[in-house]
TrEMBL record, chain A:
Keywords: Amino-acid transport, Signal, Transport. CDD domains: PBP1_Nba-like. The lineage of its organism: Bacteria, Pseudomonadati, Pseudomonadota, Alphaproteobacteria, Rhodobacterales. Residues 35-366 form the Leucine-binding protein domain. This is Leucine-binding protein domain-containing protein. Belongs to the leucine-binding protein family. It comes from the Bacteria. Transmembrane segments: none annotated. GO terms for biological process: amino acid transport. Residues 1-23 form the signal peptide.
Automatic annotation (TrEMBL), chain B:
The keyword Membrane applies. Belongs to the binding-protein-dependent transport system permease family. LivHM subfamily. The chain crosses the membrane at residues 12-31, 38-57, 63-84, 96-121, 141-161, 187-213, 219-236, 243-264, 276-295. The keyword Transcription regulation does not apply. This is High-affinity branched-chain amino acid transport system permease protein LivH. GO terms for biological process: amino acid transport. The gene is livH_5. It is found in: Cell membrane. GO terms for cellular component: plasma membrane. One of its GO terms (molecular function) is transmembrane transporter activity. It is a multi-pass membrane protein. PANTHER family: ABC TRANSPORTER ATP-BINDING PROTEIN, BRANCHED-CHAIN AMINO ACID TRANSPORT SYSTEM PERMEASE PROTEIN LIVH. It holds the Pfam family BPD_transp_2.
Length: 398, 305
């Protein structure tokens, strides 16, 4: 019995070492005429709605283009289950066994950190359509890594700048007690210099905010700034309305958007957020994207969908530029960097760190003319905004 | 500060009555049937989904609530007959495994039937809005309604358990179920009834919170742990204990979460105080549990350790 266990353990160990070694030797890409793209999104669990929007956005673009970059296209979709360990394995499998040319995703920053190295070290291009951590924007920037969303801090900075502009002196800050929550409040304070009425960290996944709302009522701040993604935000918004606090301005990031509005509906109307886009931005590419998306999926697209849609457009533009020759990586990277496509958000280009340089808006939740709920751009806060980490990026050869 | 205290006390009581509704079923099932039911939180979630569905179909929260009750009875009976009945003679480990499996099956089923996005239940018009409490402070009418509904159920349970024949059997079953079955009571029927009662109470709790929380898969697990603490503190099998335990746990949790950071702010900077206070509050609940178990190993009203 004991020997069997030993054998089994040794086998497992050997296999583990073997795959570890293989990761270093994978050729950049398969030489065939098929463009292969792997999507890694969170498609199950409480945050599944975000991943579904992103997948829908990418698939919509792919469907409309037929052949991406004029090549026969094959798309593999993988659910990371919001587990970094699983995502890293999935990414390795996509790169080594499926030999994909591009990996697109994920939603969450901790997943991005897990899949970044397995993908980029093999020469495969990774395009993040949502997560944009500070390390990959700054010192750890990589020529094989592109972002079509934003640097994580930026939406919070937008709200800080808005609070500053409104002359608020006393803002109540609230975020869940984990890294992104702390980063969020730091981002807000980056562009806000006024006073802080209170700073509360809630439990991650908390659903009842009655005690926090009571504190807000007691402090009567000029405004509330919060970061409560997903279900937390739905609950907070509904309870904020019920507690009779609607007279206090509600500023947020990733809290009131097209993924939560179907659940909050009227309770959220009039609440403010910061974003790089809104479904009602007035330009041709956007009108086309939004109406096609609504027709196909029956709900209003959010930034998650728009950013994934742009990733497909980005790949399309670059692959067309290099004439389908995916073996010359330098040419492909250069073509990607040009970002030669019409983004629904309007101005879009890449900075030195391959993160977007784009405009940011104050958005307000509204009931749309079609009876559905969405955000609406109110005011441009930042123009061609470069993230604050870009200057730390020294892009060397890969 | 006094205003804030009163407000938070109300919040605590409101959470307390909800915890009581869930814990009452759990404590009976464990006390009388000796079944560890991890899937009890599922019933809470299902109740919320039922009321969301029925309210959407009928256009009225009240109809939704009314229709939810027979559906809850059906779910309770089906679960008891199909799964729980087979676990009575098994070890606790088997029960934990089976009911944990049930949690996963239920969560996936809910996702398949209702989708992954959280659902929303409109609040009944008559209970929306808030009433002024003191100064600028207001309190939502609906939360007051939850407190009243929860207390009414607690009162009803008290009457049933202390003044009816069924209640007598329940109390006897919690103390010594072997003796009850030896006296010729159909224990199978009693068990099915207890489990269904627990299921209905949990579903009712889920239905009550549906208008204030988003209806989401996994909402059951988030309350289940606190509910277990309530059952342990109150004493297994005791409804009275569950009531007191639920209020105690909820008030300690709520007040600790608010006033912990405020007190810590005297000695720490605000952001560190916020984080430290957030860790302190859940700890307080377990410290309370440890202290009570130290003084009374069977819980406040537990018959046996």
């Amino acid at each position: 019995m004991q020997t069997k266990t030993t054998i089994l353990a040794t086998t497992a160990l050997t296999l583990g070492l073997a795959t570890g070694a293989a990761a270093q030797e994978v050729p950049p890409a398969a030489e065939d005429d098929v463009l292969k793209i792997g999507l890694i999104y969170t498609l199950s669990g409480p945050a599944a709605a975000l991943g579904e929007q992103a997948r829908n956005g990418f698939m919509l673009a792919a469907e409309r283009m037929g052949e991406i970059g004029g090549m026969e296209t094959e798309i593999v979709v993988i659910d990371d289950e919001q587990r970094p360990d699983k995502a890293a394995d999935d990414a390795r499998e996509l790169v080594q066994r499926e030999e994909v040319d591009f990996v697109v995703g994920p939603i969450f920053s901790n997943i991005l950190v897990a899949i970044h190295q397995p993908v980029t070290e093999t020469g495969t291009i990774l395009i993040s359509t949502n997560a944009g951590t500070s390390n990959f924007a700054g010192p750890d920037c990589h020529p094989n890594f592109f972002v079509t969303s934003y640097q994580n801090d930026q939406n919070h900075e937008v709200m800080g700048a808005y609070a500053e502009q409104q002359g608020y002196q006393n803002v109540f800050l609230m975020a869940p007690n984990y890294q992104a929550g702390k980063d969020s409040l730091a981002g807000f304070k980056h562009s806000y210099t006024g006073g802080v009425a209170g700073e509360v960290f809630t439990e991650l996944g908390q659903l009842d905010f009655s005690s926090e709302l009571a504190q807000i009522a007691a402090f009567q701040p000029d405004a509330l700034f919060t970061f409560m993604p997903g279900g937390m935000g739905v609950n907070l918004v509904k309870q904020y309305d019920q507690a009779g606090l609607s007279s206090i301005p509600f500023l947020s990031a990733f809290t009131v958007d097209e993924t939560t509005l179907p659940a909050t509906q009227d309770a959220a109307v009039g609440l403010l957020g910061g974003a790089n886009w809104a479904p009602d931005l007035d330009n041709e590419a956007n009108a086309e994207f939004v109406s096609a998306y609504i027709e196909e999926y029956g709900h209003v697209p959010g930034t998650y969908a728009m950013q994934a849609y742009d990733a497909a457009q980005l790949i399309n533009s670059a692959v067309s530029k290099v004439g389908g020759d995916l073996t010359d990586r330098d040419a492909l990277r250069a073509a990607l960097k040009e970002a030669d496509f019409d983004s629904p958000r309007g101005d879009f280009s890449f900075g030195v760190n391959n993160y977007p340089v784009q405009d940011f808006y104050l958005v307000e939740a509204v009931k749309r003319e079609d009876g559905m709920y969405g955000t609406s751009a109110q005011e441009k806060i930042f123009d061609d905004y470069v993230d604050t980490y870009a200057e730390q990026c020294q892009m060397g050869a890969s | 500060m006094a205003n804030l205290f009163v407000l938070q006390l109300l919040n605590g009581v409101q959470l307390g009555v909800l915890l009581f509704l869930i814990a009452a079923g759990l404590t009976l099932v464990f006390g009388i049937m000796d079944v560890v039911n991890l899937a009890h939180g599922v019933l809470y979630m299902v109740g919320a989904y039922f009321v969301a569905t029925f309210a959407a179909l009928t256009g009225s929260f009240w109809w939704g609530l009314l229709l939810m009750l027979p559906a809850a009875v059906a779910v309770g009976l089906i679960l008891e007959v199909v799964v729980i009945r087979r676990l009575y003679a098994r070890s606790h480990l088997d029960q934990v495994l089976a009911t944990f499996g049930l949690v996963m099956i239920a969560n996936e089923t809910v996702k398949i039937v209702w989708g992954v996005s959280p659902l929303s239940v409109p609040m009944p018009e008559i209970l929306s809005g808030s009433v002024p409490l003191m100064g600028p402070l207001q309190y939502p009418v609906y939360r007051i309604a939850i407190i009243i509904a929860g207390l009414a159920v607690a009162g009803g349970l008290y009457l049933v358990i202390n003044h009816t024949r069924i209640g007598m059997l329940l109390r006897a079953g919690a103390t010594n179920r072997m003796m009850v079955s030896a006296l010729g009571i159909d224990i199978g029927k009693l068990f099915a009834m207890v489990f269904t009662l627990g299921a209905v109470l949990a579903c009712f709790a889920g239905a009550l919170v549906a208008p204030i929380l988003s209806v989401d898969t996994g909402m059951g697990e988030s309350v289940l742990i606190l509910t277990f603490v309530v059952v342990v503190i109150g004493g297994i099998g005791s409804i009275k204990g569950a009531f007191l335990g639920a209020l105690l746990v909820a008030i300690v949790d709520t007040l600790g979460g608010v006033f912990g950071p405020i007190l810590l702010r005297e000695v720490l900077d605000p952001s560190a105080a916020g984080q430290a206070g957030r860790m302190l509050a859940p700890m307080l609940v377990y410290i309370l549990m440890a202290a009570i178990l130290f003084a009374r190993p069977a819980g406040l009203f537990g018959g046996r350790a």
